[in-house]
Amino acid sequence: MNVLSFNFTKISAERKLPFKHKSIRTNIEFINIEKDEIEMLKDSEVIKISFNFVVDYSESKEKEESKEPTGKIIFEGVVILSADKEESKEILEAWKNKKLPETTKAALFNLILKKCSIKALSLEEELNLPYHLPLPNIKKTPQKE
């Protein structure tokens, strides 16, 4: 399985005032998976995967609470994969039950997290939202004289 392209179709960010948050939740959801065609690729099959990646800032730590989030970042996009017939069949069969094979799912999660988290950090800085990922804290080591 090879990634042919990764494209955003929507990027949205908002911060409501007054801004209060107790929890930050991230979620990746696969919206649709379908077979696609690219003329240049005759030997492999092409799979188009639509996804959502959401960072949600909430006043409540409870998932069930229905309060409106005080901040939200949303990414929608499409990943185009090239796969052999066996992999393609396995992915499309699993999707009939709205699931993905674990190895494919892990690879896609890592790709989406990598691409979206970088953009989300920039948006969080612009909107003065707390970072959804813990940033590394480099400790200064004392100099020996």
Name some characteristics of this structure.
145 residues; alpha+beta; 4 strands
Compact summary:
The chain has 2 helices and 4 strands, in the order ββββαα. By secondary structure, it is an alpha+beta fold. It has one domain (2-127).
SSE layout and pairing:
Elements: E1 2-15, E2 23-36, E3 45-58, E4 71-83, H1 85-95, H2 102-127
Antiparallel strand pairs: 1-4, 2-3, 3-4
Inertia-based shape = elongated
Widest sheet: strand order?
1-4-3-2
Summarize the helix and strand pattern as letters: EEEEHH
Give the helix/strand class: alpha+beta
Instruction: Give the CA-CA distance, first to last residue.
Output: 54 Å
Number of helices: 2
Query: What number is the mean pLDDT?
Result: 85
Count of DSSP strands: 4
What's the main sheet like? 4 strands, antiparallel
Radius of gyration, Cα only, in angstroms? Answer: 19 Å
Helix content: 25-40%
Assess the beta-strand content as a share of residues: 35-45%
Low-confidence stretches: none
Q: How many structural domains?
A: 1
Describe this structure in words.
By secondary structure, this protein is of the alpha+beta class. The chain has one domain (2-127). 26% of the residues lie in helices and 38% in strands. The chain contains two helices and four strands, in the order ββββαα. A hairpin with an 8-residue loop joins strand 2 (23-36) and strand 3 (45-58). It is elongated. It starts with a strand and ends in an 18-residue tail after the last helix.
